[in-house]
């Protein structure tokens, strides 16, 4: 048995993990505090045995004999959690220049993020990056992306223009316009052919069309993610149509908003949806009905909450205090949360925006630390349809995990004290990333 103490670990941990993968020998992380992502409380002094990129064993340290071929990494004082999942991001702001895009993906991976859900982007870019991430050609989380479906009039606003590097918005397979007369089997098949994991329902759909799209997408094995208000459909109508998840606390407000969504059935630059936040009550009967329906159906909710405290108000009526109340009301109804952001931390920030989201959800008393970690791990994996493979630290699952220097159950800000990320059994030391980052910052 090869035993490595912490000082030696810093020098050899990466090569040890690679050699273990190549030889079939095992790595054991010992004396760690374990937060497994299932919602269970932390377990102290645990051992995690990893072989062939998967979790081969998991038990209290010293309770059983380690394999003879194990490389032992002794990590007292460290906490291990499942790899984090960013459930709402957009990579297209970084398409040009490409090095900035690669840098953002690297920042995510070395911060503990092992998978991202891109909610609108160029499928050719996302697909190519995703292939590189899976083959280990780039340091990146795994990339899952959506194909966007929207009504024909919203195309004139060109909001999704950056997601088209070549082609026409509304006509390419990953951004299509649809109406009640659209050939839905062909539309969904084209979306699936782009490599997307799911379809995102953007705007301008009647409830009957939302339901028809959802039924066909599920028939073809695709996830369905939606804005809460797919004007003119209200959030409750969208949820009852059977979508797998909705995004943005702001959109949820339309369930109790003072304006009739049908007014915005056709969206244009001069006809934009804005509501009066003073007329929305997060605990109204209408909102309670929505949240109860989401909880009953298991509809996932990525509130993108950290967007709102960054500014007191938004152009759409998304006042920060109201968004906080909406998120709290959803949690009180047992709605299943995800951790998505829909924004990016500044380039000079050490950690990506996902960490702001996790911390904000806890510091604003919306989720507990364990609930926030579960939202960022198990829930994120199930929302992507990969919960049988990753998202929790259990026997047989992929060795996707984060080694932290402190316990986030005690102080959620510890999520920003990453020691290393492990993705499918390969370790990525945060110290290596910090050295490169500091060198790049030198004049």
Could you explain how this protein is built, in words?
There is one protein chain. Helix 10 (353-363) packs across helix 11. The model is unreliable at 6-12 and 18-22 (pLDDT under 50). It contains 12 helices and 18 strands. The chain is globular and about 65 Å long. 32% of the residues lie in helices and 20% in strands. It is of the alpha/beta class. The protein has helices spanning 6-23, 98-110, 123-135, 184-193, 207-219, 235-240, 249-252, 285-297, 320-332, 353-363, 369-384, 430-441, and strands spanning 2-4, 26-34, 43-51, 54-60, 71-74, 79-82, 84-89, 113-118, 142-150, 175-177, 198-201, 223-226, 245-247, 300-302, 336-337, 401-404, 418-423, 426-429. Strands 1, 2, 3, 4, 5, 6, 16, 17 and 18 form a 9-stranded mixed sheet that branches.
Structural class: alpha/beta
Largest sheet: 9 strands, mixed
What helical percentage do the residues reach? 25-40%
Radius of gyration: 22 Å
Please state the average pLDDT score. 89
The unreliable regions are 6-12, 18-22
User: What is the overall shape?
Assistant: globular
**Beta-strand level of the residues, as a percent range?**
15-25%
What is the element string, with H for helices and E for strands? EHEEEEEEHEHEEHEHEHEHHEHEHHEEEH
Distance between the termini: 45 Å
- Tally the beta strands: 18
Q: Give the helix tally.
A: 12
């Amino acid at each position: 048995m090869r035993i490595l103490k912490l000082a030696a670990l810093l020098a050899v941990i990466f090569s040890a993990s690679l050699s273990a993968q190549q030889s079939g020998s095992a790595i054991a992380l010992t004396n760690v505090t374990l937060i497994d992502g299932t919602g269970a409380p932390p377990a102290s002094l645990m051992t995690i045995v990893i072989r062939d990129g998967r979790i081969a064993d998991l038990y209290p340290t010293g309770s059983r004999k380690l394999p003879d071929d194990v490389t032992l990494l002794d990590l007292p004082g460290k906490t291990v959690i499942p790899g984090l999942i960013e459930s709402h991001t957009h990579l297209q702001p970084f398409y040009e220049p490409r090095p900035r895009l690669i840098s953002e993906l690297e920042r995510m991976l070395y911060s503990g993020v092992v998978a991202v859900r891109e909610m609108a982007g160029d499928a050719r870019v996302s697909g190519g990056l995703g292939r590189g991430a899976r083959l280990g050609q780039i340091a990146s989380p795994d990339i899952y992306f959506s194909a966007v479906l929207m009504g024909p009039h919203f195309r004139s606003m060109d909001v999704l223009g950056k997601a088209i590097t070549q082609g026409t918005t509304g006509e390419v397979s990953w951004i299509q316009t649809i109406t009640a007369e659209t050939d839905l089997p062909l539309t969904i098949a084209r979306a699936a052919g782009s490599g997307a994991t799911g379809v995102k329902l953007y705007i301008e759909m009647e409830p009957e069309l939302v339901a028809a799209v959802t039924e066909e997408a599920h028939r073809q094995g695709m996830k369905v993610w939606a804005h809460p208000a797919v004007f003119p459909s209200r959030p409750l109508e969208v949820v009852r149509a059977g979508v797998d998840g909705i995004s943005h606390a702001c959109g949820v407000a339309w369930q109790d908003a003072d304006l009739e969504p049908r007014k915005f059935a056709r969206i244009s630059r001069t006809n934009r949806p804005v509501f009066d936040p003073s007329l929305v009550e997060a605990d109204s009967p209408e909102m309670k009905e929505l949240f109860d329906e989401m909880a009953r159906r298991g509809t996932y909710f990525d509130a993108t909450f950290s967007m709102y405290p960054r500014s007191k108000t938004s152009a759409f009526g998304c006042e920060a205090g109201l968004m906080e109340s909406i998120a709290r009301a959803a949690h009180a109804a047992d709605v299943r949360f995800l951790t998505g952001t829909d924004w990016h931390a500044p380039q000079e920030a050490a950690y990506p925006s996902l960490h702001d989201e996790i911390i904000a959800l806890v510091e604003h008393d919306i989720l507990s630390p364990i609930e926030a970690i579960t939202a960022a791990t198990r829930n994120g994996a199930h929302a992507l349809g990969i919960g049988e493979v990753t998202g929790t630290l259990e026997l047989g699952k992929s060795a996707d995990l984060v080694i932290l220097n402190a316990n986030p159950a005690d102080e959620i800000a510890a999520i920003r004290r990453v020691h290393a990320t492990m993705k499918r059994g390969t370790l990525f030391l945060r110290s290596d990333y910090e050295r490169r980052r500091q060198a790049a910052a030198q004049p």
